[in-house]
Amino acid sequence: MIQFDREHQVFKIDTKNTSYVMGVVSGRYLAHIYYGKYIESTDLGYVLDLDSSSLQDAVFNEGEKVTLLDRLPFEYSFAGTGDFRQSCLAVTSSAGQQGVELVYDSYEIFKGKPGLDGLPATFGDNAETLEVTLRDEVLNIRVVLSYSVFADSDALMRSCRVFNDSTEDVYLDCALSACLELGGGEYQTVALHGSWARERHMERLPVGFGTYLVESRRGISSHQSHPFLALVSPDCTQEHGEAYAMNFVYSGNFFASARKDQFEGHRMVMGIHPDGFRWKLAAGDVFQAPEVVMVYSDAGLDRMTHIFHDLYRNHLIRQRWVYQKRPVLINNWEATYFDFDARKLLSIAKEAAGHGIEMLVMDDGWFGRRDRDDSSLGDWTVNEEKLGCSLKSLVEQVNALGLKFGIWLEPEMISPDSSLYREHPDWALQIQGREGGQARNQYVLDFSRPEALGYICQSVFQVLKSANIEYVKWDMNRPLTDAASTYLPKEQQGEVFHRHVLALYAFQERLLEEFPDLLLENCASGGARFDPGMLYYSPQIWCSDDTDAIERLKIQEGTALIYPLSAIGAHVSDCPNHIVGRNTPFATRSAVAMAGTFGYELDITKISEKEKGQIASQVKTYQENIDLIQQGDYYRIASYQRNNLYDCYEIVSKDQTKAVVVFVQVLAEANMHNRLIRLRGLKPEAVYQAGGNCYRGDALMQAGLPLKRLRGDFQAEVISLVERK
Ligand code: GLA
User: 647 in ligand 1 pocket by Cβ < 6 Å?
Assistant: First the structure.
């Protein structure tokens, strides 16, 4: 529910458990008042001293204007006129001068939640939106701040639009999406960091004076950092304490910071990274900033996670697939790399079909002359000579074995060694007079150039139409550098990064319009673009190229902090693991891959008969738990990242009648006895059966579930709990 208390000039946005409050200071500035646990009253102006004559005097005391701007907790901060903290909006005028002052203009409250032009965003019924308009009277620009809530969620969605109402062009140097002012108090940051094959490891640090920054300037949300930032109370655990989180529904450069100021207030912001960004806002134009999802929890990280998971399942991932059972796939990448033909793929498919696997995915290497990673991106024609048959014939043969067929693509790229590049060298991103930097022997296509985008769209669609292809793995294997365009005029070169993301979104939207039943899995050298923006298009995202079961524990813990398990691409691969060289039991690899979409990525024709023999029952276990995995509440019970010994998570069905616990003992310890694991989220009075034993819910949550001592490193156990009526 959203309301405006006219008497106190206070806006209040409530969800079931939270309140978000802001106020108009002396009819002039929009200031933040409160965000946190639900409060009944709207009379909260006192928090800011809104009614005091000293504040009103300060607003109208031109002699101390800068002093005031430097201390007000702004709802949307602006640069160059006195607020020296992090700005959300920075504008260069037609005269080349910087400086903005946003004053309150008007508001509107309405039912529903409008889409964001050209951008992914949460959607759904039962929404309510508040739009507050701010204005800069000198520049004649208007900023519309948008706040939406859904009746079934405690999340708050924010974004904004900047309108140029003047007759002159201006330039946006920074247009962030959201700002949150938290007052004094102690906070810690929770963020996700990593590298290729080590994505999204959690890190927690105390906030001191100065700025804590999480960012990507790679043109993608990146392996290295993640468009997520939370400030938590120092006592915050999984079950207790406060968390304020922001997650960016965007897949390119981002900037998120938390800054403690001289008065011990904390300002947290999130948006498109201002570095490398300069948007020409022509007279009459509007710029749409992407959405930020804000979550407040007063019940620790578990609650925060549940709010994100439910929101993304019910309001971000398209309903076509979100709760749909996905086919258990086998991917040939780690099985063959580039060295395959149709015969090899069919031998894998044939073996897989006998063990309950449902789809074959043909990975990189089927097009142009691609036998290594140094050619042919952009030449999306099937290499029939290599395959030994047409794509249609291959797919028909795979289908005849009872398997669906999926294919790998990397549409945003161009290899210097490709017919496309030889014909259109100007279609790659490039800086005039400078040789472009290659990564994985490739350049990035200039998607701001309509004919490049159109050509790739058309050639990809042609491939997809040529056979019964039911799944696409859309890859993206390098960051953007040399981010300049031979197509855009010089005053728009600062738009290249953002235009790439917009074109990517438009492309995937068209793809889904054209092929509405396609199961799309996004991927970027593993998990370099695992973000809510991509989730809007694909219900699942490849989580990491690191398929080692033990390394995956940390990666999947960090990923599942925000994203539902149904979104996390996870496969059982071969040992020794190709990335880290570790040997783990086949059963453990399967238990770990269950915290995701579950599939295989190995040469099934070459593994031992013993391992082969386990596949059908692994697939069955996964399928038996599919409802829990796709719909349940996820609890992080123990973190290997923190305890260095073991990992445990639990999923409980929404009606609390079923649960599954996955325990992985990473390292065995000497002279250790049975372990008790305290579960969460069960009905205290219900009796649950686990194996041959029955326990009351309160006992499982207080005293714990007893786990027999496991012998050896890297052992896993999957325990199902069912309520006994
Ligand atoms: C990326 C992906 C891998 C695989 C290769 C193919 O690295 O993350 O899964 O598809 O590309 O080149």
Answer: no
| Protein residue whose Cα sits closest to atom 11 of ligand 1 | 525
The CATH 3.20.20.70 portion of the chain extends over: 329-412+450-475+518-632
Q: pTM value?
A: 0.98
CA 524 to ligand 1 center in whole angstroms:
7
Q: Is 526 in the pocket of ligand 1 (CB under 6 A)?
A: yes
3-class DSSP assignment, residue 429 = coil
Residue with the smallest CA separation from ligand 1 atom 2 is 525
Q: Assign a CATH topology to domain 2-315.
A: Beta-galactosidase; Chain A, domain 5 (2.70.98)
The Cα–Cα gap between 282 and 290 comes to 19
**Delimiting residues of CATH 2.70.98.60 domain(s) in the chain:** 2-315
Q: By CB neighbour count within 10 A (0-12 exposed, 13-18 middle, 19+ buried), where does 380 fall?
A: buried
Burial 401-438 (b: 16+ CB within 10 A, else e): eebbbbbbbbbbbbbbbbebbeebeebbbbeeeeebee
Ligand 1 mutation target, pool 475, 541, 571, 578, most atoms within 8 A of CB = 475
Say whether pLDDT at 61 is over 90. Answer: no
The correct CATH number of 329-412+450-475+518-632 out of 2.40.40.10, 3.40.1360.10, 3.40.50.300, 3.20.20.70 is 3.20.20.70
Instruction: Report CA(718)–ligand 1 centroid distance (Å).
Output: 30
* Mean pLDDT across the chain: 97
* Span 681-701, pLDDT tens digits: 999 999 999 999 999 999 999
Report the pLDDT averaged over residues 101-115: 98
- Our answer on whether the CB atom of 523 is closer than 6 Å to any ligand 1 atom is yes
Ligand 1 atom index nearest CA of 408: 10
Candidate of 362, 408, 543 to mutate for ligand 1, largest count of ligand atoms within 8 Å of Cβ: 408
For residue range 538-554, what is the model confidence (pLDDT) as tens digits?
999 999 999 999 999 99
The percent of residues above 70 in pLDDT, for the chain, comes to 100
Ligand 1 atom nearest 601 alpha carbon: 9
Topology at the third CATH level for domain 635-723: Immunoglobulin-like (2.60.40)
Looking at residues 74-82, what average pLDDT do you find? Answer: 97
Q: Where in the sequence numbering do the catalytic residues fall?
A: 531, 611
Q: Say if ligand 1 is within 6 A of residue 588 CB.
A: no
The three state secondary structure string of 661-725 is EEEEECCCCCCCCCEEECCCCCCCCCEEEECCEEEEHHHHHHCCEEECCCCCCCEEEEEEEEECC
pLDDT in tens, 381-406: 999 999 999 999 999 999 999 999 99
